[in-house]
Amino acid sequence: MTLPAQPASGSAAADKFQPIPTLSPEEAQANAKAQEALRQKMANLNAQPTAAEPGLETSAPGAPGATEVLPSETPRDTAVRTAVLQANRAKLEQKETKEPSVMALPGLQPLTGPPSPIPLSKVQSLEALLQRYKLDQISPEQYHEQRAKILADP
Fold first, then answer.
1. Using alpha carbons only, what angle is made at residue 44 by residues 43 and 48, rounded to the nearest 5 degrees?
2. How many alpha carbons lie under 13 Å from residue 131 in its C-beta half-sphere?
3. How far apart are CA 85 and CA 67, in angstroms?
């Protein structure tokens, strides 16, 4: 890049403003080529069909493994979304089937914590209450009220 000639150093304009860099003819030509390539790429992307092609779905909508094709999706978008959904399902299945991971070295026993100070009957009641809360059978307010009541009982 070349800089334009600077005004005299004694002028007020020279003290306030910095010169604007300009492009050399080679740089300007390279910049124009890059912009043209970008315009062509954008035009190619915009020219692709926006609706999914018929016959891409191989299973009924709503069936396990089926993906719903949205009108604004391209076939590539549908394929990417299907791959992501399958990967998420696989991760979920692994989490469900995976045993709790306990890092144990050969010859060492895992550490056990101290016994709970809460009696077993209260622990069971709290677990049952938590299960009801997770299944949305009781509201959060009811859960906290009943939990406090269970813990307050002798």
1. 115
2. 6
3. 9
Q: What ranges do the domains of the chain cover? A: 121-152
Res 132 pLDDT > 90 = yes
Q: Cα 86 to chain center, whole Å?
A: 15
Tokens of 123: 């622990």
Determine the average pLDDT of the residues in 83-95: 80
Query: Is residue 6 classed as helix, strand or coil in its secondary structure?
Result: coil
SS3 label, residue 22: strand
Exposure class string for 84-107: b at 16+ Cβ within 10 A, else e: eeeeeeeeeeeeeeeeeeeeeeee
Mean pLDDT of the chain: 75
Q: Interhelix angle for 120-134 vs 140-152, to 10°?
A: 180
| Per-residue pLDDT at 141 exceeds 90 | yes
Rounded to whole angstroms, how far apart are CA atoms 36 and 42?
10
